[in-house]
Structures are given as structure tokens and as C-alpha cells.
Amino acid sequence: MKRNVGMLILFLLLGWLVGAWIATALEPVQSLSFLTASKVIKWSPQADLNIISYDFTIQMKLCLLSLLSMIISVWLYRKL
């Protein structure tokens, strides 16, 4: 069975999304704060070329729970 890279990326994104939703739901629980604490990674390329300018921002929010869910999603992908 040939593996599809697009499907792997889809599994990773869905795992990240599910992990973020679970982390948001568990934020009020103080004893699980180590799982729900987020770190923001931000990248903002910009340029002004006199006739055109752009400002583009990519921001990713990662927490331990979302990373764990991404690992589970890769495991599920490999099981298929």
C-alpha cells in the first residue's frame, strides 16, 4: 500500500486541531496546566519593493497536549 503525504499532513493537522480543542476545554483544570500551557511561534516576513509591499504573518500555537495528539495521529496513520 502506497502512503500518501497529503493524507499524513491531514492527519497531523487534525491531530493538532483536536489536541488544541482538548487543551482549551481543560484550561480551567489547574492540575493539568502543564499539558495546556501554550507557546506561540510567530513568523512575519514583510517587504516594501516600492511598487508592491506585503506583510504576512503565520502564528502557530503549540502545547504539550496538541503535540501528544499529533503523535497519536501519526500512529493512527501508520496503522492504516
Automatic annotation (TrEMBL):
<keyword id="KW-0472">Membrane</keyword>
<protein>
    <recommendedName>
        <fullName>DUF4321 domain-containing protein</fullName>
    </recommendedName>
</protein>
<keyword id="KW-0812">Transmembrane</keyword>
<keyword id="KW-1133">Transmembrane helix</keyword>
<dbReference type="Pfam" id="PF14209">
    <property type="entry name" value="DUF4321"/>
</dbReference>
<dbReference type="InterPro" id="IPR025470">
    <property type="entry name" value="DUF4321"/>
</dbReference>
<feature type="transmembrane region" description="Helical">
    <location>
        <begin position="58"/>
        <end position="77"/>
    </location>
</feature>
